[in-house]
Structures are given as structure tokens and as C-alpha cells.
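Hello Y.,

Per our agreement to keep a running log of every chain we model this quarter, I'm adding this entry. I've kept the format consistent with earlier entries: sequence first, then predicted structure.
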Amino acid sequence: MQINDQIKAAIKDLHDKGKGDYESLLRQVKKKHRSIQLNEFQAYSRLSTSKYLTAIAGRGTGKTVSIGDRLHRIITTMPRSSGVLILPSFQAGLTRIIPSMKQGLEMFGYYENLHYFIGRQPPRAWRNSWGSAYESPNKWDHYATFFNGVGANMISHELPNDGKGLNTDWGIGDEAALLDPAKIQENTDPTMRGTKKSAFQGNPLFC
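Predicted structure for the entry above:
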């Protein structure tokens, strides 16, 4: 059994039992994580200090790794921040974009239902030590929460005004060619007001 399969089996066992020390499993997973070798495209993406980064790249270029790397940098340098994951539609998100995002995160050692949850809160027994964003959601259906409080609001351009009213610190849009620039300007850009500017000021990933 490969390491990834072993980790996923241990996560499943943790939830099947309904109890257990998830923090010990976090530490074990961290020890097993391997280094990622970035290609030229990914290295340029990593080295960029631009607040706005657009990648025009074809299949097999390594966009999945770059998105995983950007999320990794957000998680490690902006704990308790809130962001937006911009989707052309929830159907596209569920079938193509979210699975790709999860694959990218896994490459950097983050596993669903251990390091983060999508569409639900962590188990009640974990919540005392689980981080929370400076601005947590009222509903968790379209939200991803990470162990150190980083949160991602998933918003869809198929829903009018989706995202309005949010305060966010960063944003990621996969398959940007399918996104409507007018809707980004109208619905997404106004959310980039920051949740706690004093905590993230000076971070190149901060809005």
C-alpha cells in the first residue's frame, strides 16, 4: 500500500471510530510528506510577488501543482484568513475544479477530512483545537475550512450577486477563461476588503 493510501485509510479509520487524536495523525502525516520538484512554470509562479497572478498555460503544464502551492503558501503565511474560490458554476466546481484543487493540496501534504473539510465543519470533538477564521460563515455548504482557521468561500458566477457581502483576504479562480470579467468586477472584487488587515498587511498574497 502506497503512503497516500495508508494516510487515507488512517483518516477513514479515525472517522469510523468517531474518536481519536487527529493532531497526532497530523504530525505523522507531516513526517511522511515528500518534497515537490517544481518545473519552470511552477517555479516562476512560486517566485512571483505579484498580488494578481494569471497563468495562461495548456494541459500538462502543472497548473494543479501551482494552485496547490499557492494554497500551501496561504495556509502557512495567512492563518485564520478568508478567501474566495471563484467557480464558473457549482457543477464545474464539483466535477473539475474542486477535484483538481484537492489533488494539488494532497501533493503538498494536505488531506481532506484531516487538514480540511469541504461543505461541513470538523467533528465536534476537534473544534476546541481547530482554528477558526477571523470571519467564519453562517452556512458551511459552500465553504472549506482548514485546521489553522483558513477558510475558502466557494462562489459561483451562475448565481447573481453570489459573494456580495463577504470580506475576504485572497482569491483563486481556476479555469479563468470560463469566468466572466464583468462578474468578477461586480461580485468578487468588492469582497477584497480584508478581514483583519493588521494581521496580513505586507503579505504579497493579501488582497
